[in-house]
Specification:
The protein is mainly alpha-helical. The chain has a single domain (13-222, 232-428), classed as Growth Hormone, Chain: A, CATH 1.20.1250. It has helices spanning 16-23, 25-36, 39-46, 51-54, 56-78, 81-97, 99-105, 108-135, 142-150, 153-168, 177-181, 185-219, 234-242, 245-266, 268-276, 280-304, 310-330, 334-347, 350-358, 366-375, 379-391, 405-408, 411-428, and strands at 395-398, 401-404. The chain has a two-stranded antiparallel ribbon. A hairpin with a 2-residue loop joins strand 1 and strand 2. Helix 14 runs antiparallel to helix 19 and helix 14 packs antiparallel against helix 23. The two termini are 28 Å apart.
Length: 439
């Protein structure tokens, strides 16, 4: 087994406080990601939509990441990481506040617009914070440093899941979409307004938190990182990145990883309710268990990176994730649900490790390189609607055997893990870029 190369402190003492301030951002976007996943089911029921229509929440949410990543990278290159972070916080808060007109209008599209603007802000934050963390120390410890910062991301995710379960799903009226369709118009309007107000409230709370964080970061002195060169040089940079096989394959792997993650965490509620007859609140409880496992595994895997190469560990976890996903497809009942929950242990390492591997050796090109890796979050926009469309089929035949569609739909996750395993294998085997990028 290849040993990871390690030298120097993971977080040098002079940048400890800036490191902490930037790390605070990681749970903030984790909260936004995982309060949103259960909203697919909630909006489908409240507004009487199909699973495919409800999954457009994820299309708008992760579409914002894709649309804003490259403009964010150009902005950061022209100005600074700190400026990018402040713009991101402002857009995040604006999107959260747009839940007010959305809930008052009681139609779906304003919420989609709010999610899109909110995640334009998250795109700025991730495009800024991830490479900024990588720059706060030696390149040899960069992947470990990013894994350490990313370890706090699932804490925000867990809080988002808890808020979704206890402050949203548990407070929504339990009437099904069919029962709502049979209600008189005035009663249905009152019920819809009440439920959308329940959804709105936590987003207003996070908007207030974002304002406080914005003020704190605006007042803080942050270290410069590659800011002596503010020229854009977009075409030469893109040519270097396009010629870097490790980077290009990392973008592809990141697309499929994010798709796998969002599918597992979005449709675990559908799996629990449709396969096992659980309530939405009960099913969300298993999502929270999955996140606890994810958090614990993230710290464990960060420790293991002291002894195991990032590519080698990525390969093994991707293969284990594929195996557990097959269990969720093939094994009925609670055992299948346990397999689905267990996938989170395998996913914990993947995002920051793919990110760190892909940006190894790219130097100042990391500012635009980060944009490609954030644009790869488009996988979370594209894959869930595909899975939602499969779930709407009710049953699916695989190899001549008929499966409930909610179980069969997870074959998309298996495909994602196969792609990730291939990337881990290539990097663990010492694959090098076809052309080295300028450092």
């Amino acid at each position: 087994m290849e040993k990871a190369k390690v030298s120097g402190r993971v977080v040098p003492s002079p940048v400890l406080i800036p490191f902490v301030l930037v790390t605070i951002l990681f749970p903030l976007w984790g909260f936004a990601n995982d309060i949103t996943n259960p909203m697919v089911k909630a909006f489908s029921r409240i507004l009487q939509m199909s699973n495919f229509q409800g999954s457009l929440v994820q299309f708008a949410f992760y579409g914002g990441y894709f649309a804003m990543a490259f403009p964010a990278a150009l902005f950061i290159k022209r100005y600074s990481y700190k400026a990018g972070i402040l713009v991101g916080l402002g857009l995040y808060a604006t999107g959260a506040l747009l839940f007010i007109p959305g809930s008052l209008m009681m139609v779906f599209w304003p919420f989609l617009a709010a999610y899109f603007i909110l995640t334009c802000g998250l795109s700025f934050l991730e495009t800024s914070a991830n490479p900024y963390i990588l720059s706060m120390g030696s390149e040899e410890t960069a992947t470990r440093r990013l894994n350490l910062a990313q370890s706090f991301n699932p804490m925000g995710s867990l809080l988002g899941m808890f808020v979704a379960q206890q402050l949203i799903l548990a407070r929504l009226d339990p009437a099904t979409a069919a029962e709502r369709a049979a209600m008189p118009a005035d009663r249905l309007a009152a019920l819809t307004a009440s439920d959308l107000a329940v959804i709105r409230t936590p987003y207003l709370g996070i908007a207030l938190v974002l304002v406080v964080v914005f003020v704190a970061l605006a007042a803080a002195r942050m270290p410069a990182a590659g800011e002596e060169d503010r020229s854009l040089d977009v075409r030469p940079t893109l040519r270097r990145l396009a010629g870097n096989r490790r980077y290009v394959e990392g973008v592809v792997a990141q697309f499929f990883y994010v798709g796998a993650q969002i599918m597992c965490w979005t449709f675990i509620i559908h799996y629990g309710t449709m396969e096992l007859g659980l309530s939405e609140v009960q099913a969300q409880g298993y999502n929270m268990i999955a996140m606890v496992i994810f958090v614990s595994s993230r710290f464990i895997c960060t420790f293991l990176l002291k002894y195991v190469s990032p590519g080698g560990l990525l390969l093994r976890l991707a293969l284990a994730g594929a195996g557990l996903t097959l269990g969720a497809i093939l094994i009925p009942g609670m055992a299948g649900l346990y397999c689905l929950v267990g996938i989170s242990a395998c996913m914990s390492l993947m995002f920051p490790t793919i990110y760190g591997i892909a940006l190894t050796g790219v130097g100042e090109d990391a500012k635009l390189g980060a944009a490609g890796l954030i644009m790869a979050i488009l996988g979370g926009s594209v894959m869930p609607p595909l899975q939602g469309a499969i779930i709407d089929l009710d049953t699916v035949s695989l190899g001549g055997v008929t499966f409930p569609a909610v179980r069969a739909s997870f074959v998309l996750v298996v495909i994602c893990f196969v792609v990730i395993a291939h990337y881990g294998w290539r990097t663990a085997a010492g694959s090098r870029p076809a052309a080295q990028s300028h450092a």
